Amino acid sequence: MCGIFSAIGRRNVVPLLLEGLRRLEYRGYDSAGLAVINGKLQRVRSAGRVAELKRSARARGLNGEVGIAHTRWATHGVPSESNAHPHVSGGVSVVHNGIVENYEDLGAKLRAEGYAFVSDTDTEAIAHLLELQTRDFVTLLKAADGLPIIIRLLDLPLHEFLPREDDVTDPRVRQRIAELKETNPMLGHRGVRLAVTTPELYKMQIEAIEQARTQVPANVSIMVPQVITTEEALIVKKLLKGSNMKFGVMMETVRACMRAGRIAGEVDFFSFGTNDLTQAVFSFSREDAEKKFLTTYLERGVLQDNPFEILDVKGVGRLMETAIFWARRAKKEIEIGVCGEQGGEPKSVLYLHSIGVDYVSCSPFRIPIAKLVAAQAAIQSKSESARSDNPPE
Q1: pLDDT of 189-204, one tens digit each?
Q2: N or C: lower Cβ tally within 10 Å for the chain?
Q3: How far apart, in whole angstroms, are the C-alpha atoms of residue 372 and residue 368?
Q4: What gap in Å lies between CA 74 and CA 167, rounded to an integer?
C-alpha cells in the first residue's frame, strides 16, 4: 500500500505534491520522493517520513510546473533513499503501487540490454521498460525522416509477453503464467482486449510515443488492432486525451466490418487487416490450412487462389465493400487502407483501388510492385473518367 499524488499547473507544484503526500502518509511512511519537470527532469527522495522529503526538497530549491510524488510502504527492498520512488531511467520517471510479479525476469532481460539497476525494487523495471520502448520509438521516428507513420499498438496474445513456465522458479509467477494460458490464443486475449483488461499496457505505449515525439517531431497516427465494437475504440481513444495524433482501428473482425458506419464516426481512419480478416471469413487458421489442406483445395479446384496471397474478392472483398459503403456514408472523408500480404499482390491492388481503398501497406519486398500497380490503377481510373466526361460524338 503506497500513496501517489500528481499535479500540473502554471506555478510551482512542489508544495502541492508535498501536501498531497502528507495527507496520504497513512498509506506508507518508510520513504518518499517526488519528481518535477522544469526544462529538465529533477528528482528528490529520502528515507523516512514526508517531513524528511520536505526538508530535502527545500534544500535543493526544487521547482516545476508538472510533477509526481510517492510515499512508500516497502514490498521489495528495505526502506532507503535508493529504493524510494520515483524511479528514473533516461528521461522517464515512474511511481507505482502494486507488485510486478516477473520483475526478476524482466530485470535479467533489461540488464542484457545494458540497463543498470540501482535499487532492489520491482518498480525500477517499469521505468527501464518505458525508457526502452521510448528509445525504440525514437529510432523508428528518426528512420521515418519526416514521413507520416502509423503505429499499431500491441497485438500479440498476452501470454507471449511472459517468460516460459519452465524458465521461472518463483511459484507465484508460474501460477500466473498458467492462468494466462489460452486454448486458442489468436482468438483470445490479444489486441484491444489487452487495453480493456490491462489499460496500463496501451497507456505505456502511448506515453512512450509521445515522449519520443518530444525528441523527434513526427506525424504519427495510432492504430488499434482486433476491434469488434465502438466501445472498445472509445476506451483507447480516452487514453489519447490531449494528444494531436490521429486515431484509427484495424478492421480485421467480421463484426467490425458490419459495424463500420458506427466505428467510422469515432475514428480518423481505419485499415483492413486482410490476414486476420481472411482467417475470420474462411474460418481457417492460416498456418494449419497451408500445412494440411489448402494445397489440396487448390489442386482440386475447390478454391481458385490461396486467399492469404490473393484477396478473396467474392467473400472477403464483398465484406470490405459493405464496410466501406457504411463507413463513407457516416464520414465521407474517412481514410481507408489495407494492411496485409494481399496489399502487395497486383490483382488485389487493382481490386482495392476499384472499391475506394486509399492506401495499401505490405511487406517491404512487395512495395515496388504495389506502388507500380497502384500508379497504373490511378492512371487507368483518370483515363476512364476522362472518356466518360467526353463521350464520342
Answers
A1: 899 998 998 888 899 8
A2: C
A3: 6
A4: 27
